[in-house]
UniProtKB/TrEMBL annotation:
Organism this protein belongs to: Acidianus hospitalis (strain W1)
Keyword Transferase: no
Annotated pathway: Carbohydrate degradation; glycolysis; pyruvate from D-glyceraldehyde 3-phosphate: step 4/5
Residues that coordinate or bind substrate: H152, E161, E282, D308, S360, H361, R362, S363, K384
UniProt-recorded name of the protein: Enolase
Gene label: eno
Length: 417
């Protein structure tokens, strides 16, 4: 067995994420001197069933770094980096909890990603080739969050993300550059209506104008698409992140200055989908309401109702969603579950049940562009990685541009709707 594949050392260090918070970067080095790294992102809006990060009282990640340097390093030294599943299972067993709370999901996912990237490098393969093997690859359609509300903004909008979807283009580069034109027109509109101060960027690169109602945001998107000259060529999406505006005590959703029951929310979303080209709707109900997800999906057959907090990249909850026919789409966030092996299992379960897949970033990101390769390698239907701005977001888009240019891979799935 060649030394280039045998793990010699694993080391964790603290780095900064895109919000200026500390996170963990893990380096994996082989006996043959091959070395790569993986970063752990962090979310602001989190599902309660997500795997647990390890942090100290000041928000630092020293406990996670200690997990890597004093436990994971010893446990994985001597492993072959190509044995991803064996390594991930060893990490799961070493942690021994259901939610990765002993070693920390941030320590574990950064290690898991670093192992995969090191293996690809040792084999002389692109990361997407290593992940996907010999299959024919496809470039995912981007979901670009260009206008923010909820926990990602300082306005009165309850919906967290307003998204443009450039589905009707022949190449990823054409789709992305058209999206940047829409984004620039949106910023111009916001400047005209509210002043330049409101074009300041949110966590994921979107603007946060002082809006109060959902329709105001969708109207702004429509106007931006028209001004950019692409009327009829973009679909819209929304990440409601509705658990954040769900009043559990009263059992109502507080949105647009009103309190709405789940049944009233179904009518609310249906009216929006009738008036605007809403192809995608994420987390429209609170994270425990599989039944109303299913009711809405049954009613909005042309909209991809998508579960994020509903599933938290966990096969156990996805199977419940499949049984209830809750959604046509799933968010896939590796750090929600903690290892790539579990991420692959979740992704494959979704795909086997004809559920659309969305490889997703977090609001607290790093410059690591791994999820771009992950999305191409797995042939994800979509990738969600923010607005076409801020380096931690454009790093992912630029990586896909590289892949498309170098390997001339087909864009999108013609049967995606």
């Amino acid at each position: 067995m060649s030394d280039q594949f045998i793990i010699k050392k694993i080391k964790g260090i603290e780095i900064l994420d895109s919000r200026g918070n500390r996170t963990i970067r893990v380096f994996v080095e082989t006996e043959g001197g091959i070395k790569s790294f993986g970063d752990a992102p962090a979310g602001a809006s989190k599902g309660s069933r997500e795997a647990i990060e390890l942090r100290d009282s000041k928000g630092g990640v020293k406990p996670a770094i200690d997990s890597v340097n004093y436990f994971i390093n010893d446990a994985l030294r001597g492993f072959d980096v190509r044995r991803q599943e064996d390594i991930d299972r060893t990490l799961i067993q070493l942690d021994g909890t259901d939610n990765k709370s002993k070693l920390g999901a941030n320590a574990i996912i950064a290690t898991s990603i670093a192992v995969a990237k090191t293996a690809a490098k040792a084999l002389g393969l692109e990361i997407f080739q290593y992940i996907g093997g010999g299959r024919k690859h496809r470039i995912p359609v981007p979901l670009l969050n260009i206008l923010n509300g909820g926990l990602h903004a300082g306005n009165n909008l309850k919906i967290q993300e307003f998204i443009i979807i450039p589905l009707k283009f022949n190449k990823f580069s054409e789709a992305l550059f058209a999206s940047t034109e829409v984004y620039k027109q949106l910023k111009n509109l916001v400047t005209e209506k509210f002043g330049k101060i409101y074009t300041a960027l949110g966590d994921e690169g979107g603007v946060s104008p002082p809006l109060n109602k959902t329709e105001e945001a969708l109207e702004l998107l429509s106007d931006a698409v028209k001004k950019a000259g692409y009327e009829g060529e973009f679909f819209f999406g929304m990440d409601a992140a509705s658990s954040d505006f769900y009043n559990e005590k009263e059992g109502v959703y507080e949105i647009d200055g009103a309190k709405k029951s789940a049944e009233e929310m179904i009518d609310y979303y249906s009216e929006l989908a009738e008036k605007y080209p809403v192809l995608y709707l994420e987390d429209p109900f609170n994270e425990n309401d599989f039944e109303h997800f299913a009711e809405l999906q049954s009613k909005l057959k042309n909209t991809i109702i998508t579960g994020d907090d509903l599933y938290t990249t966990n096969v156990k909850y996805l199977k419940k969603g499949i049984e209830n026919k809750s959604t046509r789409g799933v968010i896939v966030k590796p750090n929600q579950i903690g290892t790539l092996t579990e991420t692959y299992e979740f992704f494959d379960t979704a795909r086997e049940n004809s559920i659309k897949t969305v490889i997703s970033h977090r609001s607290g990101e790093t410059e690591d562009n791994f999820i771009a390769d992950l999305a191409v390698g797995l042939n994800s239907d979509f990738i969600k990685t923010g607005a076409p701005a801020r380096g931690e977001r454009t790093a992912k888009y630029n990586r896909i541009l590289e892949i498309e240019n170098e390997y001339e891979i087909e864009y999108g799935n013609k049967n995606i709707i």
